Amino acid sequence: MSKVSVSIIMGSRSDWPTMQEATKPLEELGVEFEAKVVSAHRTPERLFKHASEAHTRGVEVIIAGAGGAAHLAGMAASMTHLPVIAVPVASKNIKGLDSLLSMVQMPRGVAVACQAIGGAGAYNAGLMAAQMLALKDEALSQRLQEWRKAQTDSVPVEVE
């Protein structure tokens, strides 16, 4: 079994369509991950166990997505020394602005790297996790550089 480097957690199963976007760059770059439902409000003991023990399982980065009163990323960050990347999931009532403000307004001393609302933010969270891991993984760093070059090369110079 491969080592899982990234743990993707979300507040509810309904967040998966958004959070699944985080898996795309991880899969493209060959980074092992897991995905779990861990609610800050409905499963606080599960959150505590997951966040506080993640490093003992080899997890190096946590991506946390939630909507509404989105406390998942901040609570996870308060329970671990691992970097936590937050993804605000769009909510019905305020279109994710509530989630964004909950995540980005962290108190001093509890750092969370907050991404954009929705799928683009989730995708970038996966990419950022890979970039963090590439700092100490030369093979991943090389794959990431090749990925970036392919992205750049895919942009046409001229309009047809």
TrEMBL record:
<dbReference type="InterPro" id="IPR000031">
    <property type="entry name" value="PurE_dom"/>
</dbReference>
<comment type="function">
    <text>Catalyzes the conversion of N5-carboxyaminoimidazole ribonucleotide (N5-CAIR) to 4-carboxy-5-aminoimidazole ribonucleotide (CAIR).</text>
</comment>
<comment type="pathway">
    <text>Purine metabolism; IMP biosynthesis via de novo pathway; 5-amino-1-(5-phospho-D-ribosyl)imidazole-4-carboxylate from 5-amino-1-(5-phospho-D-ribosyl)imidazole (N5-CAIR route): step 2/2.</text>
</comment>
<dbReference type="InterPro" id="IPR024694">
    <property type="entry name" value="PurE_prokaryotes"/>
</dbReference>
<dbReference type="GO" id="GO:0034023">
    <property type="term" value="F:5-(carboxyamino)imidazole ribonucleotide mutase activity"/>
</dbReference>
<dbReference type="Pfam" id="PF00731">
    <property type="entry name" value="AIRC"/>
</dbReference>
<keyword id="KW-0658">Purine biosynthesis</keyword>
<feature type="binding site">
    <location>
        <position position="15"/>
    </location>
    <ligand>
        <name>substrate</name>
    </ligand>
</feature>
<feature type="binding site">
    <location>
        <position position="42"/>
    </location>
    <ligand>
        <name>substrate</name>
    </ligand>
</feature>
<dbReference type="GO" id="GO:0006189">
    <property type="term" value="P:'de novo' IMP biosynthetic process"/>
</dbReference>
<protein>
    <recommendedName>
        <fullName>N5-carboxyaminoimidazole ribonucleotide mutase</fullName>
        <ecNumber>5.4.99.18</ecNumber>
    </recommendedName>
</protein>
<feature type="domain" description="PurE">
    <location>
        <begin position="4"/>
        <end position="155"/>
    </location>
</feature>
<dbReference type="InterPro" id="IPR033747">
    <property type="entry name" value="PurE_ClassI"/>
</dbReference>
<keyword id="KW-0413">Isomerase</keyword>
<feature type="binding site">
    <location>
        <position position="12"/>
    </location>
    <ligand>
        <name>substrate</name>
    </ligand>
</feature>
<comment type="similarity">
    <text>Belongs to the AIR carboxylase family. Class I subfamily.</text>
</comment>
